[in-house]
Amino acid sequence: MANKYTISIPVNLYEQLTHHLSETSFKNLEDLAAFVLQDYLDHNASEKEAPPDDNDEVRRRLQDLGYM
Description:
Elements: H1 11-21, H2 29-49, H3 55-64
């Protein structure tokens, strides 16, 4: 079993999560909250690791202008 910590969240957020719990397959609020937090972290990590899409276009434009 993994170590666990207790965190405090605003009442309105707790109520929203509780409302959505019945619409999911999660068994309890703790599992839903852990999933949402992990999903957020995974999403942000993948955005930071991905190179900007514009690099090739910028490089091509600089070469066309004679800077590279």
